[in-house]
Write a structure and sequence with these properties.
Layout lengths: L1 H9 L7 H18 L3 H7 L4 H9 L18 H14 L1 H21 L2 H12 L5 E4 L15 E5 L2 E12 L6 E7 L9 E7 L5 E3 L13 E12 L3 E2 L5 H37 L1 E2 L2 E2 L4 H29 L5 H26 L1 H4 L6 H8 L8 H13 L3
Helix pairs in contact: 2-5, 5-6, 5-8, 6-7, 6-8, 8-9, 8-10, 8-12, 9-10, 10-12, 10-13
Bound molecules: flavin-adenine dinucleotide.
Length: 392
């Protein structure tokens, strides 16, 4: 390990190893062959990619960083980012489904779950047989996440949960939910605990599928808990530990959402370059105009910088070092890059870009959410500034 770190210090290496190249290639081929043909229909009709997600599980994309002992692919975070970027380029909805299952559900159970919980839940989550969701937000508590009301009351060896959670990604299609709720009232974040909830426990119901601007292939909904009985063995890591677990796991989640944004930005550039070499105006390909070249160059700079920030945060995570600030920087920068690149892509397509049938306006609609969920850009700025000011 020490030799490895010394080696890294002396030679900065941006090359991918064989395994990383392989997962990138596999994900690219899967996305182009299996997601691309139906992505427009899923966006138009808000259809969840059920079969495609199951296939992604079979390929190892749903538990990339989890040990093979629990059914995972046992790869590093860079490999995860490479696969996720390829999926996000083609279908940002499939990417968020993959990101939540990997970053927020499997990683949380793997890091904080008991042996019994890992053995029971991870194999089916990693292989695409089951799907996970992560439920923290409530109608009155978004950025201020500890201001939650959902409450788990302990009676003998069970908990009885009551409350409303909202905007749960994978809320409808999931089988397992990681739920953050109070086990003690009036003590702020110290009263928050994490539970593993099976969707078919009594007392759970889901609201309607939300009608969204973008990522329309993913499902988002409210979840209602009405005296939902949960066995005590489904509490993760002990009462009162939930909020710190959520913050820690969301740091990793931000690498996933930054990568989703990167995929959208890269697809925007790829589509822009292809179109600008085909479209002619004033007797020339529009790629020959300086104004178009300037947009393409700026998009490429933002994409390269996003990828470097993401891979830096991912490699710090793989080395077991603190990466919270770097993950926040990666998400903040990449989500802005996705907004800028997708908007410039529509501009390069001109009027055709504004038409649904060209398929590039979807990139603009999908990009916006990356600035909102798993901590808004304003919250990322708070995380970065706090870390800098305390001298990290
Ligand atoms: C499509 C979608 C999917 C989602 N999926 C999930 C999920 O799977 N699980 C889950 O738990 N949640 C999920 N969320 C919720 C998401 O994480 C929240 O929307 C997000 O954290 C912001 O919370 P809010 O919407 O309540 O905004 P608010 O917190 O009300 O913020 C409103 C505005 O005020 C700003 N603001 C808030 N506080 C500050 C501050 N201190 N300083 C400066 N500005 C501030 C915000 O940045 C924002 O611009 C999802 C949301 C959406 C839209």
């Amino acid at each position: 390990m020490l030799n490895f770190i010394n080696d890294l210090k002396s030679k900065m290496n941006f090359n991918l190893n064989e395994q990383q190249q392989l997962i990138k290639k596999t994900a690219r081929e899967f996305a182009n062959d299996n997601l691309r043909p139906s992505v427009v229909e899923r966006d138009e009709k808000s259809l969840f990619p059920k079969d495609e997600i199951r296939q992604m599980g079979e390929l190892g994309f749903m538990g990339v960083m989890i040990s093979p002992d629990y059914g995972g692919a046992g790869l590093d975070t860079i490999s995860y980012c490479l696969a996720l970027e390829e999926i996000a380029k083609v279908d940002a909805s499939a990417a968020v489904i993959m990101s939540v299952n990997n970053s927020l559900v499997c990683n949380l159970i793997y890091k904080y779950g008991s042996d019994e919980q890992k053995n029971k839940y991870l194999p089916s989550l990693c292989t695409g047989k089951h799907l996970g969701a992560f439920s923290l937000s409530e109608p009155q508590s978004g950025s201020d996440a500890s201001n939650m009301l959902t409450y788990a009351k302990k009676e003998k060896s069970n908990y009885f949960i009551n409350g409303i959670k909202n905007w749960v990604t994978n809320g409808i299609s999931s089988n397992i939910i990681i739920l953050m709720c109070l086990t003690k009232k009036n003590v702020g974040h110290k009263g928050v605990s994490a539970f593993i909830i099976e969707k078919d426990f009594d007392g759970i119901s889901t609201g309607k599928k939300e009608d969204k601007l973008g990522i329309r292939g993913s499902d988002t909904c409210e979840i209602f808990f009405n005296n939902c009985k949960v066995p005590g063995r489904n509490l993760i890591s002990g009462e009162g530990k939930g909020f710190n677990i959520a913050l820690d796991i969301l740091n990793g989640g931000r690498i996933g959402i930054a990568t989703q944004a990167l995929g959208i930005a890269q697809e925007s550039l790829d589509r822009s370059m292809q179109y600008s070499k085909e479209r002619k105006q004033f007797g020339k390909k529009i790629a020959e105009f300086g104004a178009i070249q300037s947009k393409i160059a700026k998009m490429a700079i933002h994409i390269e910088a996003s990828r470097l920030l993401i891979h830096k945060a991912a490699s710090l995570k793989d080395l077991g070092l603190d990466f919270a600030k770097e993950a926040a920087m990666a998400k903040h920068f990449s989500s802005q890059a996705a907004m800028d690149c997708s908007s410039q892509c529509v501009q390069i397509f001109g009027g055709y870009g504004y038409m649904r049938e060209t398929g590039v306006e979807r990139l603009m609609r999908d990009a916006k959410i990356t600035q909102i969920y798993e901590g808004t850009s304003e919250i990322q700025e708070m995380v970065i500034a706090k870390s800098l000011l305390k001298g990290d």
